[in-house]
What we know:
The protein is mainly β. It has strands spanning 21-29, 35-43, 84-92. It has one domain.
Amino acid sequence: MPRFGLAFRPFGDDKTVISGGFGMYKSLHLTERINLRGEATFADILNHTNLGDPNLNISSPSFGLITNSVNGGAFGAGNGEARTGQVSMRLDF
């Protein structure tokens, strides 16, 4: 991979996506036949922006600028979205 000027080695080639997901649940046995389950799931709890590749077209006025974020993230989060979460309760009988 060619290097651009004094740029560090992975410039333009770093495809690392930083994202973190977290989930937890609790089951309660209300009676012998009835159970209640509560669940919470969170995506991108780090709220970290994953930047896209810089514009490498040297004739462009936006050369070297990063103008987008990459898709990625846990539980379907992506497109540069902020952290998301969902909470649910389930009653089994």
